[in-house]
Write a structure and sequence with these properties.
Layout lengths: L2 H7 L2 H19 L1 E4 H4 L1 H16 L5 H23 L4 E3 L4 E4 L4 H23 L6 H26 L14
Antiparallel strand pairs: 1-3, 2-3
Helix pairs in contact: 2-6, 4-7, 5-7, 6-7
Pfam families: DUF6622
Protein name: DUF1453 domain-containing protein
InterPro entries: DUF6622 (IPR046730)
Length: 172
């Protein structure tokens, strides 16, 4: 199958999602202050995208779901580690989080999109069955990335608890 055929066969919503995610990744490079609710969007998009695929993919079996859960658990741990090192600060009164600029979200978005796009193409071309490795890899990647963004968001939420430090990642 040619690259042109692959690009033409890609649904429009995939390109819209890519543009939106790239805009969020570029914005994250600049850093800034945002309400906690806005920071929930990207984790929700990646979790929803992954779970929707688990439900809609005919080749996704229990092993794909298990790979998603395993990836999510590992991703949450990575996300927590990344967020704790990010020098974030919270304003409990305004319910906002201030994050320094970082290329990490953009890199994660690009790697995720590229891997999910490739896996989607492979699933479409090979007409993979439940015994194929492609759905399992897709579940693992989806869970890992959703977990990374969820782990970061978890740290932001926990920073609002009374007694939690208002900033993380500062060097002493």
């Amino acid at each position: 199958m040619s690259i042109e055929a692959i690009l033409r066969g890609t649904p429009v919503w995939v390109w819209v999602l890519l543009v939106y995610l790239l805009s969020r990744g570029v914005k994250a490079m600049k850093g800034g202050t945002a309400p906690l609710s806005r920071l929930a969007i990207v984790p929700a998009v990646f979790a929803g995208w992954g779970l929707l695929h688990l439900v809609k993919e005919p080749a996704a079996g229990w092993n794909t779901g298990l790979a998603w859960v395993g990836g999510a658990v590992l991703g949450i741990a990575i996300g927590v580690l990344l967020a704790r090192r990010s020098r974030l600060t919270v304003d409990r009164a305004q319910k906002t989080v201030t994050l320094p600029g970082s290329i990490v979200p953009l890199v994660l978005i690009l790697l995720t999109f590229a891997s999910k796009f490739w896996l989607g193409v492979e699933l479409a071309i090979t007409h993979a069955g439940v015994d194929s490795l492609y759905p399992v890899l897709d579940g693992l990647v989806s869970g890992l990335v959703a977990g990374i963004f969820a782990g970061r968001f978890l740290v932001y939420c926990l920073a609002f608890r009374p007694g939690s430090p208002a900033s993380f990642g500062e060097r002493v």
